Amino acid sequence: VEDGREKDPETIKIGDMPVMIRSKVCTLSGNKLDSYIEKNNGPINATRKEKLQYIGEDPEDSGGYFIISGSERVIVSLEDLAPNKILVEFDEKYDNRVEVAKVFSQTGGYRALTSIEKSSEGIINVSIPSVAGTVPLVILMKALGMEKDNEIHESIFSIIEMDPIIYANLEDSRNPKIFPPNGVITSADAIAYLEKRFAAGQAKEFREK
């Protein structure tokens, strides 16, 4: 319908679709092969192998590819994660079930993976780009300037079941037995921890960077 008037249907060619060898619409499959042999006065009562040999095809060819402009082409499946979408899954590590949330952050031509793991004990660690190993989530947030526990709690909290998990991680960050000598309380403490963890022995300027 155009301008309120019905017009005759119009066929427009937008391209050609190649046929996969040995697919249902391929000449070499099933009844299509028999029709082709009959049309070309071939051996109708021959076996399938003989029919394929008659038309110059390899009976052992399993197909599954395309021929475009005389060249073979294969479709290769590629699994990729959607950018900027948080995906949650369960993983098995050291016989323990671990919850993992990951996101491929993408902007312009830059793409990086960030993942968060929650162990069966409720400890939350973060894996960030360009850094080997993981970082406790609370320490990372303190290093980014979020010093107060209530700020960290509010930024993470979404359901009431998370309360004990968040508080357990906050308490761990303050535990001097886990993070000597005095625990990780301030942003400066968190940055110092990261410097020792990932740039031990390097010059101060490099550690801060």
UniProtKB/TrEMBL annotation:
| Keyword Transcription recorded | yes
Mind listing the UniProt keywords for this protein, alphabetically? DNA-directed RNA polymerase, Nucleotidyltransferase, Transcription, Transferase
Which Pfam families does the UniProt entry name for this protein?
Answer: RNA_pol_Rpb2_1 (PF04563)
**Single GO cellular component term:** DNA-directed RNA polymerase complex
Q: Gene3D superfamilies from the entry?
A: 3.90.1100.10, RNA polymerase Rpb2, domain 2
SUPFAM superfamilies in UniProt: beta and beta-prime subunits of DNA dependent RNA-polymerase
Q: Which residues form the RNA polymerase beta subunit protrusion domain?
A: 4-83
Q: What is its EC number?
A: 2.7.7.6
Classification via PANTHER family: DNA-DIRECTED RNA POLYMERASE I SUBUNIT 2
What protein name applies here?
A: DNA-directed RNA polymerase
Organism per entry: mine drainage metagenome
